[in-house]
Design brief:
heterodimer; A: 236 residues; Rossmann fold; six-stranded mixed β-sheet; four-stranded antiparallel β-sheet; B: 314 residues; 15 helices; 78% helix
Chain lengths: 236, 314
């Protein structure tokens, strides 16, 4: 049974349809990526899973229907959300940012904090620094750390590499892989950076205008000439 | 809560300084300090809500007024003892806090501020026309029982209340709930994304703010011995509270206390030279310069100075 299974998910902003009959799934410990351009519906999809946007359809987590439930219930079910790094609390210290996630922690807060500091030693060194004064990469780590403070089994990550240097992107990629392999987390990543998604995810979904237009492994998608040219900058 | 030894030391120094004042200053100055203490309480209550959550309330006199009018009517018209009328006033103010919360569930920013301003105007009109036999109409109520007699006793009561409420609010804001309220002020959506119920958190903030405002309002009216709608539900009264918070440092609890004392004494010091309304021009100018120099308020100026001193000693 998939860890998370989404069927016929639709979302609207007023009369504008942001997501249309979207189907996707991820198994336990798997990393999947959703790639798409600006306005494709990537963030809406994650917000919809979290219960932050009203949707129709079905979002099943561990067999339980989560659609229509509050974000508190979704987090309690084991879904952690790392929004874009611009969505931190800029005038709070790193530790205070992490502690906001601790409110809904399903396990011991101190253990979670130690886990986050072990995964991101740089955050431990700068725990009293305001996030507004941090680099983009560090802020992304805080965003991931805050989501991990809720002790999730499924981690939703919204555009983790946006505006980051290639070296930092590699670092983020390595961390997400470790979360999957070492901690057994199911990771759902949305990305505009298709090459990042290809190198990281086991399966990739292409989202265009709120619809999944194709999906498959990195090998399968790169063989599609039209897709390769649009997203990966190559042609076979 | 992450308390350090110097927190206890600073609070003890703060309390001791306030308590020693009657030995050090004249009775006239004490009367000024009593007003500064009550203004500080109102500023702290505003800061608990707006300074933290970013929901800028222009209707704060609405809450203070509910507390003041409830205890005034109960004690004056129904002979309810003050030990009972004040707690009832606080509870009624907290219910008023929930009424202010209602628009905050749907709107924010300038829309919320304007709706809360309407609350103040609404209660101003209501106190004049609904049951004037109880509220005293436009003339208000006089001859209300006072809790203390004389400036010294009045000061001790106001200062004790200020110390208790400030420490209570400061400690509350250092808890995880306080951190979450602060986070709401910066990014409410992101707080929801972390699985927190922002509705419950906002409800808590509005209730806590109303509790402090109601208690302050009730004690204030029993210090003054009279109440009038024009004095309480007035835009100038509202702006005095707001300026105290902004000058002192919003979201810090202790900043608004500093701001309140600074503003009250600034006005008093200006009085001999500028006895008329023109001193408000100077007062506004000074407030503006301080705010432009350091938008995070007097408390930040102090902490920066402290930081420089520490740096110089290293």
């Amino acid at each position: 049974m998939p860890d998370i299974e989404i069927k016929k998910l639709c979302a609207f902003y007023g009369k504008a349809q942001a997501l249309s009959d979207l189907d996707l799934s991820a198994s336990e410990g798997e990393i999947i990526a959703i790639i798409g351009a600006n306005g494709a519906g990537k963030s809406t999809l994650l917000d919809g899973i979290m219960g932050l946007v009203t949707c129709t359809g079905s979002v099943r987590v561990g067999g339980d229907e989560m659609l229509g439930k509050s974000s508190s219930a979704t987090v309690a079910k084991g879904i952690g959300y790392a929004p874009e790094r611009f969505n931190l609390f800029p005038y709070m210290s790193v530790k205070a940012n992490l502690m906001v996630g601790a409110h809904t922690a399903r396990e011991d807060v101190q253990t979670n904090l130690e886990t986050v500091y072990r995964l991101f030693p740089r955050l431990a060194e700068r725990k009293n620094q305001e996030t507004a004064t941090q680099s983009g990469g560090e802020r992304q780590m805080v965003s991931l750390g805050r989501a991990l403070m809720t002790s999730p089994s499924i981690l939703l990550v919204d555009e983790p590499t946006i505006g980051l240097a290639p070296k930092v992107c590699l670092e983020i990629s390595e961390i997400l892989r470790r979360l999957s392999t070492e901690m057994g987390l199911t990771v759902v990543v949305t990305e505009q950076n298709a090459n990042f998604a290809l190198s990281l995810a086991e399966r990739i979904y292409v989202l265009e205008g709120g619809k999944i237009t194709s999906s498959g492994t990195a090998d399968e998608l790169t063989k599609d000439d039209a897709l390769a040219q649009s997203y990966f900058g190559t042609k076979h | 809560m992450n308390l350090r030894w110097y927190h206890f030391l600073l609070w003890a120094a703060f309390a001791a300084t306030l308590m020693l004042m009657p030995e050090l200053v004249s009775k006239g100055t004490l009367r000024t300090m009593i007003f500064a203490c009550y203004l500080a309480i109102f500023a702290v209550s505003w800061d608990l809500l707006s300074g933290r959550t970013g929901y800028i309330s222009f209707g704060h006199p609405f809450l203070i007024g509910i507390g003041a009018y409830t205890t005034a009517i109960l004690s004056k018209r129904f002979d309810v003892p003050l030990e009972l009328s004040i707690p009832i006033a606080v509870v009624v103010t907290m219910i008023g806090g929930l009424i202010v919360l209602l628009p905050a569930l749907r709107i924010k920013g300038s829309y919320f501020a304007l709706v809360t301003l309407a609350y103040m105007e609404l209660i101003y009109q209501l106190t004049q026309v609904v049951r004037p036999d109880l509220t005293g109409g436009t003339r208000g109520i006089s001859g209300i029982e006072t809790l203390t007699r004389g400036a010294v006793n009045g000061y001790y009561l106001a200062a004790t209340l200020l110390i208790i409420l400030t420490i209570f609010s400061w400690a509350l804001m250092r808890t995880r709930i306080g951190t979450a309220l602060w986070a709401i002020g910066m990014n409410e959506e992101s707080v929801r994304g972390s699985g927190l119920s922002t509705t419950k958190l906002k409800c808590f903030a509005f209730l806590a703010s109303a509790f402090v405002a109601g208690l302050g309002g009730a004690f204030y009216v029993h210090y003054l011995g009279s109440i009038a709608p024009r004095a309480l539900f007035d835009i100038n009264f509202l702006f005095t509270i707001l300026v105290a918070v902004l000058i002192g440092g919003a979201g810090t609890i202790i900043g608004p206390v500093m701001g309140a004392f600074f503003l009250v004494f600034l006005l008093e010091w200006l009085r001999p030279w500028l006895p008329g309304a023109e001193r408000y021009f100077i007062y506004g100018l000074i407030a503006l310069v301080i705010y432009m120099y350091e938008p995070k308020g007097i408390i930040r100026i102090f902490s920066n100075l402290l930081g420089k001193l520490r740096g110089a000693n290293k």
